[in-house]
Specification:
The protein has 262 residues and is α+β, with helices and mostly antiparallel strands. Helix content is 35%, strand content 18%.
Length: 262
């Protein structure tokens, strides 16, 4: 999921949702649920559409019409830019929506080899020009499919595993944990785009959930912590993980919001 989110700070929220659900927005869903009643959110996004401006996104593996993303992004950007009550915009961009698809210039239809960067950079520029403070929440680590790592009720008991000569539960097995290095290696191209965006936009705040979901000191990114799964299905994080992320990121967003609304 790649979406554009704007927290509405004066309680006049008319929540708008374009082809997405709060539950499918990964860490942003936790921010929405943990926010106080006077800090509501306008949610604008469309499944598998990175928040790009001026480029069309093509993915041969997807059956979606590229024009759907272009139209959704145009409406989203126009809505946010034109709303004076929105001061802070949070962009959530999935790695798979940037690394893999091809991009063409929306006007000339010529192939844009740097379209992943150009599209987001233009969106950020338009938002900043409209006086918005822009925050980028980057992709969470991609774990093995949680459905392959969830124990059946009985096999989760140590006594049952002892009878079956099982040393570890499924969630504790190596196949259900990725290393921090593997995550870093798999996101080199994605993080390079983020670094370029930061270099060109010094006032861009980048929030990274990786240190929250991974044990960097141990070099692992587990699928569960303290008996709670961090992922629900695919690379979508769970409500438990949402809560962990919200607890750490909301104070930063609140600080930005306070300064941006002055």
């Amino acid at each position: 999921m790649s979406s554009i989110f704007a927290p509405r700070i004066n309680g006049k929220s008319r929540a708008r949702l374009y082809g997405a659900t709060v539950e499918r927005t990964r860490c942003i869903g936790g921010l929405v649920r943990a926010s106080t009643a006077d800090r509501r959110w306008a949610l604008i996004g469309r499944a598998s559409c990175a928040p790009l401006t001026g480029v069309d996104q093509f993915d041969l593996a997807a059956k979606d019409d590229p024009e759907l993303c272009e139209n959704a992004n145009r409406v989203a950007l126009k809505t946010i830019v034109g709303d004076r009550d929105l001061h802070v915009v949070v962009l959530a961009v999935a790695a798979r929506d940037l690394i893999g698809p091809s991009f063409t210039d929306s006007t000339t239809k010529a192939l844009d080899l740097d379209g992943d960067f150009n599209g987001i950079d233009r969106s950020i520029a338009s938002l900043k020009q409209a006086g918005k403070k822009v925050v980028l929440v980057i992709n969470n680590p991609t774990s093995p499919d949680p459905r392959e790592c969830m124990d059946r009720r009985l096999s989760g008991l140590k006594s049952v595993r002892a009878l079956l000569s099982l040393q570890k539960s499924s969630v504790e097995s190596e196949r259900c944990t990725i290393t921090y290095r593997a995550h870093q290696n798999a996101t080199v191209a994605y993080r390079a785009i983020v670094s370029r965006l930061q270099a060109g936009n010094p006032d861009l705040l980048v929030l990274d959930p990786t240190p929250i979901l991974c044990d960097v000191s141990q070099g692992t990114c587990p699928i569960a912590r303290n008996g709670k799964y961090l992922y629900s299905y695919g690379d979508h994080i769970s409500d438990a993980a949402n809560g962990l992320i919200a607890a750490q990121l909301l104070p930063e967003l609140s600080h930005i919001e306070a300064h941006a609304s002055r």
